[in-house]
Protein: HTH marR-type domain-containing protein
Amino acid sequence: MAQVSSRAGGAGSRRTGAAAPAREGEAARRAYFRSVADTRFIVRKIFRMIEAEAKRRGIDPMAHQALLQIHGSPDGRLRVNEVAARLDVSPSFASSLVKQLVAAGLAATKRAAGDPRATDVAPTRAGIRLLHEIDAAVAPHIGHFAGQLDAAERAACLAILGTYVGRPARRR
Structure:
């Protein structure tokens, strides 16, 4: 690699003044991306556990997510287009998920008050019970996984998630 001179005519000498901050900046960027990678690993691992349990209980993971969004909404019900928005999917796909939930007896639909084109979806007792069962089944596995994380991994994950929702990460 060619050496860069820090002064005119000083061939062979290395420039250290400007290179050190660049290396520190690169180290900080690398640490940031390591935190992002660790966060995505942690979140994905947990989601996979939940998806696997949903499948074991006979519900498609996306239908489970739809049921969770519906039950977890402020009113405990959503319109189909709101399900689509919460899952970031097309309205037609959300409609198909809702149909799966209704066919399985996990949700019920009714025409929305004031808008005959819209459909409200609410979980049934069976749907709510299934959500509780899945949550209870995965809790020990998630707890075991979380127990394997060290304090630095937890802190990095929380910092990255904080930046995703608008809280700036603290500089160390």
